[in-house]
Amino acid sequence: MRAKAQSEELIPRMGEEMEEEGQEETKSASGKEITTLEDLPGVGPATLEKLRAVGFGDLMAVGVATPGELIDATGMTEAAAKKLIACARSNLKMGFESGEELLKKRQEVLRISTNSKQFDVLLGGGFETGGITECFGEFGSSKTQIAHQLAVNVAKPKELGGQDAYVVYIDTESTFRPERIIEMAKGAGVDPQLILSRIRVARAFNSDHQMLLAEKVEDLIKKENLFVKLVVVDSLTAHFRAEFIGRGTLAERQQKLNKHMHILSKIADIHHLCVYVTNQVMVKPDMFFGDPTTAIGGHIVGHNSQTRIYLRKGKKGSRVAKLIDSPYLADGECMFYVAQEGIRDI
Ligand code: GTP
Ligand code: MG
Q1: Angle CA(75)–CA(76)–CA(81) in degrees, nearest 5?
Q2: Residue 34's pLDDT is what?
Q3: How far is the CA of 339 from the centre of ligand 1 (A)?
Q4: pLDDT band of 95, cuts 50, 70, 90
Q5: Which of 5-9, 41-45, 94-98, 216-220 has the lowest mean pLDDT?
Q6: Mind listing the pLDDT tens digit for each residue in 194-229?
Q7: CA-to-CA distance for 54 and 215, rounded, in angstroms?
Q8: What is the percentage of the chain residues whose pLDDT exceeds 70?
């Protein structure tokens, strides 16, 4: 809506920089294959700088952008924005893939172990890269402990079953504890300092800050060249829930949450990393049968999460994980517990 309204009042400020409408470009002005933003026809140094300033760092970012986003970033005309997107897309080969290619992609998916064999089996090997996995459950159901364990397991060396990778931890409730990472690292037989050096933590003060931090993950990957394989958002919904109170603001909250999750999902897809988000539950007072708890964020969170896991407290201090929604795994349950050295099988 906003992008359209804005584009209507735009005068073609970028006209001279853009070439006339014509056939889709597959080569840059110099005849070179288009592989970077600079190669795109009509993108001069000024436009390039504006695009980079708001995080459009490569062809993929432009290819998956909306015209409105590019107009906001650069002030270009709607026609120019559409042309740029089309050109980026045609050079990204974003068309259809064969079943074999998809299978190959699926086989390249990394799985981050939870440290519990049963939990890993439930998830087809562990938390997957390439999408968002959500754990929702009441307080103390182990959402944060799982985040710490995944961080250790993704950062630890390959010889020990890890990925030798970095972790970005967006902490909205100040519950990230380096001491706990040290305990779990020791439990896994890894140097705690190595693990801590591979975790980047940022405290999110409100929902806007949280959204901004999610957008900044790309900077870490590109500017600092970090091999990030896990992004944690703990908790995804707490700030949104606290800030948008009352029915009147629900639509706005859902819209923002949707945008936030789109960004996370895009990062997961483009950079082949796992996004792990946690979510609280609320009690549905009108429910008389079955479990009356339901996840916050409604269908927006549900639809944006590729895999959803419901956590609850079990008998004798155990925790129960139930797979709710997976595109290809069977629904099921398993039990685990949180020990001093980390997550363990019963
Ligand atoms: P909220 O964020 O409050 O909604 O809860 P959560 O689901 O994030 O729970 P969290 O992961 O923080 O805690 C789950 C359980 O892990 C707790 O009930 C404790 O039993 C256990 N736990 C938490 N911290 C430690 C610790 O340092 N050592 C051990 N051994 N267990 C812990
Ligand atoms: Mg927590």
Answers
A1: 130
A2: 86
A3: 10
A4: low
A5: 5-9
A6: 999 999 999 999 999 999 999 999 989 998 999 999
A7: 9
A8: 87
- In a shared domain, residues 22 and 70: yes
Is 97 inside a domain boundary?
no
Q: 140 CA distance to ligand 1 centroid (A)?
A: 5
122 and 238 inside one domain: yes
Q: Which residues constitute the domain of residue 274?
A: 104-345
Tokens 């999110």 -> residue: 204
Q: What is the token pair recorded at 247?
A: 């029915």
**Distance from Cα 197 to the centre of ligand 2, integer Å:** 22
Q: Which residue lies with its CA nearest to atom 29 of ligand 1?
A: 340
**Best residue among 136, 144, 236, 320 to mutate for probing ligand 1, ranked by most atoms within 8 Å of CB:** 144
User: Does 338 contact ligand 1 (Cβ within 6 A)?
Assistant: yes
Task: List the CATH number of the domain containing 68.
Answer: 1.10.150.20
Report CA(280)–ligand 2 centroid distance (Å): 9
Q: What is the pTM assigned to this prediction? A: 0.77
Question: How would residue 23 be classed by pLDDT, with cut points 50, 70 and 90?
Answer: very low
Same domain as 291, residue 164: yes
